[in-house]
Amino acid sequence: MNSDPFQILTLEKLNELSIKITSEKNKNLFGKFSNLIGQGTKTENKGVYIWGGVGRGKSMLMDLFFENVNFKSKKRTHFHNFMAETHDLIHKLRKDDRIKNIPDHAAELISRDSKLLCFDEMELRDIADAMVLNRLFSGLWNRGVIIVATSNRPPEKLYEKGLHRERVLPFIKNLETKCEVLEIKGNNDFRLSARKGMAGWFNPISEENTLILRKDFEKLIGEIPSKPDYIPSAGRQIFIPCAASGIAFIDFKDLCEKKLAARDFIEVASRYRGLIIDKIPILNDENRNESRRFIWLTDALYEARCFLICSAEKPIDEIYSGNDWKFEFDRTKSRLIELTASPG
Fold first, then answer.
1. pLDDT band at residue 175 under the 50/70/90 scheme
2. What domains appear along the chain, each with residue ranges and CATH number?
3. What is the model's pTM?
């Protein structure tokens, strides 16, 4: 972990919270970082809302907190996933005419399983979220649920130009009261720093190159353990076998051999800062559908300003040998060169 002065206050607050809520007498959750932060002090029982620019270490700090806090009733999830699951729950609850305040009842059910909720990338996307947000989270806070969240925006900027934003303003006010709001300032992107010197495209497909990709993945995610991820998209879940700290490690077949649409790849690109893709085959007219999906994936990653590290059968200029997508792939090659370039 980098000893960054802008991260130390956040680390201190998370350490204090861990001491407050721990289920055992764990005196210093982040003992390995005691040289940076010292001992935590007792504070009121608030959550923590961490915001700042891309690559500032927000998710890494929250994941470190979550993995080490000795607290059984906890859940860590992407905020978009949480809201999708909550809407599914609310849909089921609507079938019971006896329930009057459905979002509050949903909060009751959620709080039974999780008294500590850690959300990565809190971002309000649509009117459906806005309609239930305040009643849902008021119900969670009223039941003692503690929220720890990361976001690229300060609370007052959430859903800034959204439809019926007035429905969200009470939630924002509560969020600022129930959580310590901390900005991780600075301009350094630690993920870019970690990538310096890393090549972005390896060929041919080989065990040696797969091993290089795995080692790069481990370097980029640091001490955070990787886990499978599930991304909600159009009523289904996109399965990502291995992800941590905003980085996903996948095989080409994990995405491009599945029946996914362009909008699904947009969801994937919005979830991660970078993708490591192993075993990209030669693309041609025989695998035209897979080739088309790879074009969509590349476009989505490019628009989201992600980075790529890949292993493939051929160099970028030779990876496509078909005719069906020849025109489209000229742009894809240019984008692949940019996406896989190592930072200066």
1. very high
2. 5-184 (3.40.50.300), 190-339 (3.40.50)
3. 0.73
